[in-house]
Here is the input.
Amino acid sequence: MMAPIIDMKGVTKNFGGFRALDGIDLQVAEGEIVVVVGPSGSGKSTLIRCINQLEEHGGGTIEVDGHAVRKGANLTAIRAEVGMVFQSFNLFPHLSVLRNVALAPVRVRGLSWHEADARARKLLVRVGLEDQIEKYPAQLSGGQQQRVGIARALAMEPKVLLFDEPTSALDPEMVGEVLDVMQQLAKTGVTMIVVTHEMGFARKVANRVVFMDAGRIVEQGPPQTLFDAPRDPRLRSFLNAILSH
Amino acid sequence: MSFFDAFLNWSVFVQTLPLLISGLTITIGLGLCAIVLGLIGGMLLALLRLYGPSPLRKIAIAYIDIFRAIPLLVLLVVVYYALPFAGLRFTPFTSATLALSLVSAAYSAEIFRAGIEGVPKGQFEAARALGLNAFRRMSDVILPQAIKLVIPPITSNSINVLKDTALASVVAMPDLLKQATQAQALAANPTPLISAALIYIVLLLPLVRLVGVFERRLAARGK
Here is the structure.
């Protein structure tokens, strides 16, 4: 296997007395689609938030493309290579849809506004929002906002995309449009780590599913193996709980 | 002497009006200088208090607390009458601008801090996740949103600064109030004082209304 683009070794994270991550070892290869599942509070969001240091990890090491992730000068450079899509979208409400997408390429990559706007337009067409370009986030539906969020992350042309429960805040009828965009994205060869409860998406798109419980990776493997032949009893009860309704 | 002759004497009013107008321009000039300097100082203090390295943060907190505690009139008198003994001699205008903006900066700092803290956490996270540096996170993402939140209280604070310029008359500043009291002495008639009071009201009433408009607009946006 090539050197992994993400390499986590023995990563721990405490919130006060609560151990959110308890020794995480995870390697993700370039172009791999990893879906992280697990009960709430199992540490899956914390795991991906440590990769771009929205949470600072306690022990262990994290490397992105060979660069150690730590508080310090190169952190903004690492973040520029790691896109993130949030559960609550977190679009910038004072900027138009176009500027939401074009801002970081200008400020971080040094593109001109002209170039960045062109790039943003292309991406917004790709996520099916060519008619919403001049609008403001508050004028869009949740599904549309999340697609802008995806375009915003893509505009930086990141090496890795992190998705933190991207469909959990959406009305059910809008989940599909966001998953469709993500599925298209998965075919382009970008590395994706997706925290989600959408098991159908995991089954269809993931190269690997990682099951977490109590801050540890309990079991991982290809989706068929993991969903159809779970070994760990915690994974079995999780799948039963989630698939029974 | 009738009520009108004493308090609303037309000929006294006309005679002393030029004096009052010159005072008004000074009041406005002083007010604007102090407001602008107070806003700049307040923003710097707020950023230091929130994000500065620990020693600077403590200095900012101390500054903000001290200058909110000291009465403006006392500060003004200290700056104008006491500092010359330390070799610091300022003109009345400089003294007044200094005292007003030092205090206004402390109040503005607290308003800006509340505004920055009022921006949702997700906005900070999104800005960080995109790789924006600290300056860009503030200038492009956080401050534009924070400033919208604080327009009503900042306007309110600016009104207070403008009103407090009247205190500058104690350091021989020929502002509107000072000119009015002088005109009163010259004309031996209180009409200039009444005129000055009316001019203050005419100047400030629209601003007071404006705060209400801003507040309603902000409330409507929040829905």
Notes: Chain A is about 35% helix and 25% strand. The beta strands of chain A are 6-15, 18-28, 33-37, 61-64, 67-68, 82-85, 160-164, 191-195, 208-213, 216-221. The mean pLDDT of chain A is 94.
